Amino acid sequence: MADPHHLPNIFSSIVSTACRVVPALSHVDPSKILVCVRKLPPTRLGETLGLREAKERRGHDPIFSKMTVGGREILYVITFNVSLVSAAAPARQALETVMHELWHIAEECDGTIRPARHGKAFNATVAALHDAYQSVGGRPVPTFEPHTRVRLRHLRGKGRPGILSVRRDRSLAAAVPKAWKQTWTEDDVRERTTTLSRLLPMTFLYVCPLGHEIVRFRKLSKASSCAVCSPTFDRRFLLSFAKEKTTT
User: Fold this and answer.
1) Alpha carbon 79 to chain centroid distance?
2) Taking the alpha carbons of 166, 155, 76, 135 in that order, is the dihedral positive or negative?
3) How confident is the model over 176-232, as pLDDT tens digits?
4) 197: which residues sit within 8 A by CB, 6+ positions away?
5) Residue 227: left if φ>0, alpha if ψ -120 to 50, beta else—which one?
6) In the prediction, which pLDDT does 150 show?
7) Which of 67, 119, 134, 191 would disulfide-bridge 74, Cβ 3.0–4.6 Å?
8) Cβ-Cβ contacts under 8 Å for 205 (sequence gap 6 or more)
9) Nearest CA to 36 among 100, 99, 79, 84?
């Protein structure tokens, strides 16, 4: 049996190359990044977590999590959705996701997140990073067939800094899950091997009267029209269910 494709190493290689060849990403130190790959919600292609969130909003205490993996200090954890390597995933979308997550890293590369909102300006920057990477022959994100065996990586525990619900009478440090308030080691980094088809989300294909195909990750609960034909709801372009399938 062939060895599984180690997806974290594949993405780590692309991250390192991007930081080396794209001038706008030269501030990012790849050695400070731990790259993980696992199944995320279908609409979330990636996420970047800074382990030193020094926000002191409303008097809350700052968070300073520590992580050491392979003898190196980790300041960021970037997780990519395994669906990015599906044969059905658009090549540009996968590579732009890498650039998107790298752009979240602060100019100081000190474990904090760049204070930038998602929107047209952010997307334009990501597109420019993608084009700069490709202009020097950067490696694209490879894709694999559903039967391919792949190696994943994730962190132990469910707590994630930056995604917290804090009551007014509690400090931010007290609200951080226990796992995030201790020093992380190699034992907290888990890997497993599986088949790609076990991780691909179920999709639902819809078509409009003009033939446009629209993919959704859940069944529509009410009438919806084709956004390609009309930016607002229009009954002339109602979507009709075509088929249900697993992403391949």
Assistant:
1) 5
2) negative
3) 444 454 577 788 888 999 998 888 766 678 899 998 888 776 778 889 999 889 889
4) 146, 147, 246, 248
5) alpha
6) 94
7) 67
8) 213, 214, 215, 241, 242, 243, 244, 245
9) 79
